[in-house]
Specification:
6 helices
Length: 128
């Protein structure tokens, strides 16, 4: 079986490092991006099997990135797992429950992240 490739996208460098280290310990190949613009730029050259994508980020939020991934024929089959603390922050942000209900994400993980739950979801989607 070929090595599975995952992109981790979040504006929190500590979270990106923690998730990346856990994935690498499970023998996944990992790419990192720290906002939506950087993620979309990297997707032009690399096609991961799965993207772990934060919702609340500068420059381009996760809902927009997810919609761009899923509406592009070259990337629409990439599994997208959204990381979101939006449920607790809807009252104080421009992010809405409607955004979450209308996006084409394959799965969701609430923040703070339960790393074991995230790894189970990754394994489920990638058949690992």
């Amino acid at each position: 079986m070929s090595e599975k490739f995952i992109m981790v996208v979040d504006d929190d460098p500590d979270l990106v490092e923690a998730v990346s280290m856990k994935l690498e310990s499970k023998k996944f190949r990992v790419a990192k991006a720290y906002d939506g613009e950087e993620a979309m730029e990297k997707l032009k050259g690399e096609k991961p099997d799965l993207v772990i994508l934060d919702v609340m980020m500068p420059r381009k939020n996760g809902w927009v990135v997810c919609d761009e991934i899923k509406s592009n024929d070259a990337t629409k089959n990439i599994v997208v797992v959204m990381l979101t603390a939006v449920g607790d922050a809807v009252q104080s942000t421009s992010y809405t429950h409607h955004d979450g209900k209308t996006t084409l994400a394959d799965d969701y993980v609430p923040k703070p992240i339960d790393m074991d739950q995230l790894m189970e979801i990754v394994d489920d989607h990638l058949g690992a």
